[in-house]
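FAQ

Q: What does a record look like?
A: Structure on top, sequence underneath. For example:
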């Protein structure tokens, strides 16, 4: 009997499709989205590269466990409605995740084709599908469980709050979402610039969550308007706290209280949420000089630096105390900043600020550093170089050193256990020390990514559902 011929293996396509972007010299003068998204042909071509691994390591790398091969396969077949259906089984915010999640260190880091230096552009495909739905101008609602008669309060409408609200509503519970600001979205609205995450996208995702039946209350500060205990003593069977980490950290050096020195939080909130970049159409002036220094090396620092450039700064410098290799910012955002002309000063730490005689900052004193042994984070610790002090002119500073947890809810809830950093203590399912209260996101971690907050919210939502129905 003639031996059957084996089918030849399909040749791997290692030509990852890059996403078109605005020209750097053009985009640094506007707040329009930098990444322009895939065309239809690009999306189909990129999806066709997926080899549909049996082990699905990419799904393991996703904090919300999106079935990645299952949403990519229908894109290849030009069935975007099916791709959207698969996505929305696990995420209610695909348009956001496709833009700001660090796929390169999560799902794409697990992609089998990474071994060939050509991982599938998972985030770009997710964005494409979400944008396709938005272009259809109609929302596809998932299957909803029958009502359970239980009512849940969700405090904070950032990525975690929106996720837990959507999940619990789909599971049949009545969810009321409380937001302290005048618009929903949390850090997605006040922290991330328009050119990286258009606010229309965020509000579209908020409207989707509301379309599931979630009730939204804006301008409501839990801890002032009402406490957690008052919520529990009225009509709510459980609470999820996702109030984030909005308390800025500073350097603690001389001169830090001078005028024109901002926390990155204030700088970005004025720019993004309050739309200072559209002044005088929006009545939010943002006083800024021509030479700007941004202190820090994370995504918030990149956002601050790139906003400053677009707001009219002639020179923007990023000051970071470690080397480029230790920067926590996404490589894509660092490269975008460099393309736009922002300069980086590594192994440099500010040690003081000087005044111009009118209480405005006019110069910054810095100290050069070298890398020593690794610290608790695994990164090499910066060590000062004796006698390396120097002074540089600067007339606006944005300090981006991370944030501490929002203290309002813990301060008004005595039986809510916190860590020494002010973050909430939770178990593996997000359950706090207080009965009927769960939490997740930056109020627990102290500051992480959008997708990690969503992952924690999904775990907590399932635990809350089991409690409410058990």
């Amino acid at each position: 009997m003639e031996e059957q011929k084996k089918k030849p293996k399909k040749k791997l396509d290692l030509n990852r499709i890059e996403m078109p972007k605005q020209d750097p010299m053009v985009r640094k003068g506007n707040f329009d989205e930098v990444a322009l998204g895939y065309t239809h042909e690009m999306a189909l071509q990129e999806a066709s590269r997926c080899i549909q691994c049996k082990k699905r390591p990419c799904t393991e790398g996703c904090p919300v466990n999106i079935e990645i091969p299952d949403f990519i396969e229908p894109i290849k077949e030009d069935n975007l409605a099916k791709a959207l259906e698969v996505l929305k089984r696990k995420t209610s915010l695909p348009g956001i995740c496709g833009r700001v999640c660090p796929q390169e260190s999560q799902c794409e880091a697990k992609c089998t084709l990474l071994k060939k230096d050509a991982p599938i552009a998972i985030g770009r495909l997710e964005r494409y599908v979400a944008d396709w739905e938005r272009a259809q101008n109609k929302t596809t609602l998932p299957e909803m469980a029958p009502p359970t008669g239980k009512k849940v309060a969700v405090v904070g409408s950032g990525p975690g709050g929106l996720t837990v609200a959507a999940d619990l509503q789909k599971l049949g519970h009545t969810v009321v979402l409380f937001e302290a600001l005048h618009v929903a979205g949390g850090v997605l609205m006040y922290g991330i610039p328009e050119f990286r995450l258009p606010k229309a996208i965020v509000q579209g995702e908020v409207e989707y969550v509301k379309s599931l039946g979630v009730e939204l209350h804006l301008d409501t500060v839990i801890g002032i308007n009402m406490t957690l205990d008052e919520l529990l003593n009225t009509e709510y069977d459980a609470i999820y706290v996702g109030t984030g980490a909005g308390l800025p950290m500073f350097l603690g050096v001389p001169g830090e209280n001078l005028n024109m020195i901002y926390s990155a939080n204030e700088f970005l909130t004025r720019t993004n949420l309050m739309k200072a970049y559209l002044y005088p159409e929006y009545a939010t002036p943002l006083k800024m000089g021509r030479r700007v220094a941004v202190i820090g090396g994370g995504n918030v620092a990149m956002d601050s630096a790139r906003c400053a450039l677009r707001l009219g700064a002639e020179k923007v410098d990023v000051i970071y105390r470690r080397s480029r290799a230790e920067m926590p910012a996404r490589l894509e955002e660092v490269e975008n900043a460099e393309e736009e002309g922002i300069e980086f000063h590594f192994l440099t730490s500010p040690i003081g600020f000087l005044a111009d005689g009118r209480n405005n900052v006019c110069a910054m004193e810095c100290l050069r550093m070298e890398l020593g042994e690794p610290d608790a984070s695994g990164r090499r610790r910066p060590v000062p170089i004796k006698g390396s002090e120097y002074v540089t002119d600067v007339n606006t500073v944005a300090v981006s050193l991370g944030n501490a947890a929002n203290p309002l809810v813990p301060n008004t809830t005595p039986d809510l256990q916190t860590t020494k950093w002010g973050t909430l203590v939770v178990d593996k399912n997000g359950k706090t020390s207080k009965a009927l209260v769960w939490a997740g996101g930056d109020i627990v971690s102290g500051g992480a990514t959008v997708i990690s907050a969503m992952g924690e919210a999904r775990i907590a939502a399932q635990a809350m559902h089991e409690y409410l129905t058990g």
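Q: Is there anything notable about this one?
A: The mean pLDDT is 94.
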